Amino acid sequence: MKMKLNITSVMLALGIVSVLTSCLKDTKTPADPSLGTNNVVEFMNSSVPISYTSIYPQYDNGVTLVGDTGGFNVNVNWTGAQYDAPTDITVSIAIDTAALTAFNNDQGTSYILPPTDVFSVPSSIVIKKGTPSTITRFTVTGASDYDYTKSYCLPLTITSSSYGVVSSNYGTAMYTFVLNNKYAGTYTTTGYFFHPSSPRAISGDYRVYTTGVTTNKFPIGDLPAGGNPYYFVASTPDGGGALTGYTAAGNAPASPASGFMTLDNPGNVNYSGAAPNAPGTSPYLSSTYNNSYDATKKIYWLHVGYAGGATGQTGYTRQVYMEMVSDQ
To answer: Which residues form the BT-3987-like N-terminal domain (predicted)?
Structure first.
């Protein structure tokens, strides 16, 4: 009986090893020459893959736009009996929509191919003789038809190689990406939310989201939290200055029932519960919180208000003053 248990344990261990070694991504890097893999061309990790169980490796990229252009790296590797490529190797690459469909079905995702004017993919790249790999910068742009609400992916496949064979595990890879303009990110936020019945200080880290090349979605006070988020969208001028184009977002009331404020409590709302804090009393002054961006210090000074049915700022019973300092 004891001998049978030992044999069973060995067989179980061997089975586990067999399963692990057959997984798509059992290590964080593709094949290594020291493992004896000969003359293989493959995509190499440009970051830690999102999943180690998907049918194709997925690399997620946050792309920061400079102007309207950004990019991310795609690494292609040669693995052979010697560490470096013995000759120049031309590797042909193509978009593989069938692979994207298979990946979505496998992972339960809904990635789509971006519009053609958003990305630029070379038809081939070269691993130079005497080097083990090459890094190519793929360009993406914030074109007018880029939809910031969509989940985009570039499904890339190595279609051929002038030397060696294409890897069966790493010959196809998914490169997902999100465009971020230079204003997006996390901001340390302080200020005050003047409310007739629930006045409160604002303090926390809040995100500013990209909605366009120069437009972003901003929080209204502490209301992004929970299931009833209040936001607004506005454009920041290059070089700093006054924000423009206020548009309510989330559950915030549409203009004119919400908007930028230029006056301190113009409707004389009773905020006695906020004492000693009061709109128009330092530091909560519209001259300071003037809906502008200081590009040098990377600080937003925001003053917004809202109230259901209001026709302008004199009717705003909720008034928010926020200083948002970039963590970047």
So the answer is: 63-162
